[in-house]
């Protein structure tokens, strides 16, 4: 008992400490967390329009960084940080202006003499007057942006007379990427008379890395969806470098229309000397129109048909003759936009050759089939069809020939049909051989099959036993023989006395039995055949075995008889 009390005291003491520490943590959190609506923060000056996970802010009166959410209000003194992949747009309530903050940026909201001041400690800001204007860094409408100087200005911009200006992509441009072409982005800039140039690219200003160098004023780089920053570095003949500003562009994925039919490497057969093909496709971008091109060369240099479709996702071609063709699609977003091109698909149009083959039922297929137990089984076999045009069999099964035309069918490549049926009875089957287009190239006329329960074996037929009576000799010996049944696995012999009581019962393999040393009297003998499934067939008519009185035997003896 004392031990139990001590354990309870320890438990209560630990529980009390846990509650105290939890309360201290909660109080500390609520005393230090930023209260956005607290009157000491003054009036909100901005609101969060768009943000992502990882963008955080810290109030001037708190040491805690908290997640930013769309709709959060911002106050003078708030410190804002954006994540490496973060997107943040805030709107100033009284200025009707938006500021977009780049990833990996850090700034503080300030206010001096009635003007909003943004101290940029890291990264860049873009000030937008409204949602439709272009972006220009700097001071706009009473905004003062105190941008931290680039660390490389003094060291890298050694030649002030050299200015490196981009041509393509232009600052803040949107570049569309077609993943099917695995296209490269061509970056170009104005010639500044440098001996060679380097292009640096990254998902943020911090992650810029060298992508390649060129003695010309352009360079191809790999493309993928996302937001990217890039910079040009020029080197003169003395290897002095000049660094451009950092520019930004976005790569947006614009998938080309996806061909659906004809499929890649399709082999289309036609019965006609020429055929009009209905081309179809799907698209996940709202193109103003789609251009389709059909050629007989894989490089699409020799177009035989071309058209533009403004509605729908299908196009019916003019008549095409047998041969190989190539086709592709171009999605055209707007009048001046470059088209987005799909992969080239090929197909072959071939004249169909009519094939007529013969079929036959397998000799092992029985028209009357027996089943064991309560489950009817149908087993149908026919001979194989050996021809290049053959693809599969169409099998129909019905209760009558009249029902075959509307009966359901199944397709199989095997030349057999084995099914469990619900009920016994008569069934009619028809078999067709099909080519790869589902057309019949061979046919088996309907054949009827009768499903019946497997009957038991018939009664045995005795040999040389007229009137079903056998008389033993004076020594009490007798021989009984019957015709051997082909399907009998064994025979069951039953011996009864004159009163009908069973004296002996035995299973024997032979179709005969010998009795010896029988006592005088009358016996009844019954024989039944046993099939391979252990089922007893119909019993034979009882044979009367008579042993005359003059035998004077002490006891009856039946040779080799054992009770089952």
Précis, in short:
By secondary structure, this protein is mainly beta. It has 2 helices and 44 strands. Mean pLDDT is 82; it is low at 25-39, 129-140, 149-157 and 559-564.
Secondary-structure map with pairings?
Layout: H1 2-32, E1 46-50, E2 56-58, E3 66-67, E4 73-74, E5 79-81, E6 88-92, E7 97-101, E8 106-112, E9 115-122, E10 125-128, E11 143-147, H2 153-156, E12 166-168, E13 173-177, E14 184-189, E15 196-202, E16 209-214, E17 218-222, E18 226-235, E19 241-243, E20 247-253, E21 258-261, E22 266-270, E23 275-282, E24 289-295, E25 303-309, E26 314-320, E27 323-332, E28 340-341, E29 345-351, E30 368-371, E31 377-381, E32 392-398, E33 409-412, E34 416-420, E35 425-434, E36 440-453, E37 469-471, E38 478-481, E39 490-496, E40 502-508, E41 512-515, E42 521-530, E43 536-539, E44 543-547
Parallel strand pairs: 9-11, 13-20, 22-29, 30-36, 37-44
Antiparallel strand pairs: 1-4, 1-6, 2-3, 2-5, 5-8, 6-7, 7-10, 8-9, 12-14, 14-17, 15-16, 15-18, 18-19, 18-20, 21-23, 23-26, 24-25, 24-27, 27-28, 27-29, 31-34, 32-33, 32-35, 35-36, 38-41, 39-40, 39-42, 42-43, 42-44
């Amino acid at each position: 008992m004392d031990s139990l009390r001590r354990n309870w005291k320890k438990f209560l003491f630990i529980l009390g400490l846990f509650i105290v520490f939890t309360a201290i943590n909660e109080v500390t959190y609520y005393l230090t967390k930023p209260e956005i609506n607290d009157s000491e923060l003054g009036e909100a000056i901005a609101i969060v329009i768009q943000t992502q996970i990882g963008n955080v802010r810290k109030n001037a009166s708190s040491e805690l960084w908290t997640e930013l959410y769309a709709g959060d209000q911002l106050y003078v003194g708030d410190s804002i940080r954006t994540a490496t992949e973060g997107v943040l747009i805030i709107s100033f309530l009284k200025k009707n202006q938006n500021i977009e903050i780049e990833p990996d940026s850090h700034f503080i909201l300030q206010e001096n003499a009635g003007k909003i001041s943004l101290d940029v400690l890291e990264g860049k800001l873009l000030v937008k007057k409204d949602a439709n204007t272009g972006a220009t860094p700097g001071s706009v409408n009473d905004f003062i942006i105190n941008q931290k100087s680039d660390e490389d200005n003094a060291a890298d911009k050694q030649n002030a007379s050299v200015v490196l200006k981009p041509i393509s992509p232009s600052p803040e441009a949107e570049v569309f990427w077609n993943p099917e072409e695995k296209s490269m982005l061509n970056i170009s800039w104005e010639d500044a008379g440098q001996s060679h140039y380097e292009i640096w690219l990254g998902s943020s200003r911090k992650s810029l890395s060298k992508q390649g160098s060129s003695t010309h004023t352009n360079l191809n780089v790999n493309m993928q969806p996302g937001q990217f920053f890039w910079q040009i570095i020029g080197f003169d003949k003395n290897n002095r470098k000049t660094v451009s500003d950092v520019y930004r562009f976005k790569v947006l994925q614009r998938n080309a229309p996806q061909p659906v039919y004809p499929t890649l490497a399709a082999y289309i057969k036609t019965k006609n000397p020429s055929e009009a093909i209905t081309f179809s496709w799907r698209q996940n971008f709202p193109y103003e129109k789609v251009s389709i091109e059909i050629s007989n060369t894989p490089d699409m240099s020799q177009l035989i048909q071309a058209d533009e479709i403004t509605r729908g996702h299908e196009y019916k071609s003019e008549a095409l003759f047998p041969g190989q063709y190539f086709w592709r699609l171009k999605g055209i977003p707007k009048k001046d936009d470059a088209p987005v091109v799909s992969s080239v698909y090929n197909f072959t149009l071939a004249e169909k050759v009519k094939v007529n083959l013969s079929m036959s039922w397998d000799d092992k297929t029985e028209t009357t089939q027996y089943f064991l137990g309560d489950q009817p089984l149908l087993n149908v076999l026919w001979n194989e069809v050996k021809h290049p045009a053959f693809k599969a069999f169409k099998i129909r099964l019905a209760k009558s020939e009249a029902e075959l035309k509307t009966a359901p069918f199944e397709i199989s490549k095997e030349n057999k049909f084995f099914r469990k049926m619900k009920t016994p009875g008569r069934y009619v089957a028809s078999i067709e051989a099909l080519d790869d287009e589902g057309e019949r190239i061979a046919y088996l006329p309907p054949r009827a099959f009768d499903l019946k329960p497997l009957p038991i074996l018939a009664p045995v037929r005795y040999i040389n036993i007229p009137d079903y009576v056998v008389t033993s000799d004076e020594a009490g010996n007798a021989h009984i023989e019957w015709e051997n049944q082909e399907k009998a696995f064994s025979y069951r012999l039953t011996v009864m006395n004159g009163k009908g009581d069973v004296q002996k019962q035995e299973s024997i393999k032979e179709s005969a039995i010998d009795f010896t040393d029988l006592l005088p009297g009358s016996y009844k003998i019954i024989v039944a055949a046993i099939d391979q499934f252990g089922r007893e067939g119909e019993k034979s008519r009882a044979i009367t075995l008579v042993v005359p009185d003059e035998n004077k035997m002490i006891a009856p003896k039946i040779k080799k008889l054992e009770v089952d």
